[in-house]
Specification:
With about 210 residues, this protein is of the alpha+beta class. It contains 7 helices and 6 strands. It starts with a helix and ends with a helix.
């Protein structure tokens, strides 16, 4: 993975806020929960929040936030590092070897699919930067981290470019920018972004998402 992709990851507090903003927009733009690209569960486990990116094509990214720190598990189904690309069907050597003992158990949930992994990144609460295991990637191959970390949209412009294509909706950059600024989401803003959605249902979901802010 290129160093700049790792360096571009913000600190966990900012990343968590960013993932929640993108999840909020997905709630507005897509009423079918299983079709959403970004989602967020504030109370995934005791003291643990979980963000997920699922592109619907077999690739996913899980981010777990806890007091111990944060851990990111990604799976690119086309990567040579995928267990499915190997006869032994096992986790590629080095991916989890250096993960701190306090963070690795966060992945121990059937829904996280711990064994389906092509890269892992973590950051303890006491760390000042993100870390990645010492993994030998075959020449010309990729672990999918650049691709999947690129699905975290840092700016409203990037999100609008993505969502216009993915959800096939014409979005107001001005309204999306307000949500990225973490301004309260109003009925008018919801209707502006997706006139066909059930505004009351969306507001209820958003309230649950932001219940513990």
């Amino acid at each position: 993975m290129e160093a700049n992709a790792l360096e571009r990851l913000p600190d966990p507090t900012i990343l968590q806020k960013l993932m929640k903003i993108q999840a909020s927009l997905n709630i507005i733009l897509c009423q079918e929960e299983w079709l959403r690209y970004h989602s967020f569960n504030q109370e995934w486990n005791d003291g643990v929040s979980m963000a997920k990116i699922d592109n619907g094509s077999g690739d996913h990214l899980f981010i777990l936030f806890s007091n111990e720190g944060s851990i990111i598990k990604g799976f690119d189904h086309e990567s040579e590092l995928s267990p499915y690309a190997q006869d032994e069907h096992k986790v590629w050597q080095g991916i989890y070897d250096d993960v701190p003992k306090g963070l690795l158990p966060l992945l121990d949930d059937d829904a996280i699919e711990k064994e389906d992994v092509t890269f892992c990144i973590w950051r303890k609460s006491s760390d000042t930067s993100w870390h990645k295991g010492n993994v030998e990637i075959p020449e010309g191959e990729s672990d999918g981290s650049d691709f999947l970390l690129g699905c975290i949209f840092h700016t409203p412009e990037d999100f609008v470019e993505f969502a216009t294509d993915y959800f096939e909706l014409s979005l107001s950059l001005e309204v999306v920018a307000k949500i990225y600024e973490d301004l309260p989401i109003t009925e008018e803003m919801i209707h502006s972004l997706n006139s066909s959605c059930d505004v009351k249902e969306v507001l209820q979901e958003l309230e649950l998402l932001h219940l513990r802010d």
